[in-house]
Write a structure and sequence with these properties.
four-stranded mixed sheet; about 140 residues; 2,3-Dihydroxybiphenyl 1,2-Dioxygenase, domain 1; 8 strands; 2 helices; 2 domains; alpha/beta
């Protein structure tokens, strides 16, 4: 199998439409630990000075109706986190709402689905911590 050399990409940026640029860009800056560069109809969230998330003004933006509604979801982010409880508290503080609670898996991985302030779905994904068997060898 041959692999194409591809296009040399300087930055990869995910862009979201939103009617409220300030709420949407502040949310993603808070989640990702970044800062917002603001123009009249475009905000760029930068992490360590690098562009990561763009938010473009869309005054008629209609939030997707996840999972099966209209308009349908068109994109979402899976954010793998080390500490689900802390990440959950932070995204809720920043304005997220839960769309689907985590399944409560006992092993492997799990995820919980949220909507950002503009209604775009995203997931906090995490590995389920397995309890190690007791090493009590008394007898």
């Amino acid at each position: 199998m041959t692999q194409s050399a591809g296009i040399r990409i300087k930055h990869q940026v995910v862009a979201f439409d939103a009617a409220d640029l300030n709420a949407e860009s502040a949310f993603w800056a808070g989640v990702l630990g970044g800062a917002v560069d603001r123009d009249a109809d475009w905000h760029m969230v930068r992490i360590d000075g690098e562009p990561r998330v763009g938010v473009q003004l869309a005054p008629d933006h209609v939030a997707p109706d996840w999972p099966d509604g209209s308009p349908p979801q068109q994109i979402h982010l899976d954010l793998w986190v080390e500490d689900f409880a802390a990440a959950h508290e932070e995204v809720m503080r920043l304005g997220a709402r839960v769309l689907k609670p985590a399944a409560g898996n006992a092993t492997g991985d799990d995820y919980q689905v949220y909507a950002d302030p503009a209604g775009h779905p995203f997931c906090l994904c995490f590995l389920v911590r397995q309890e190690s068997p007791s090493s009590d060898r008394s007898g």
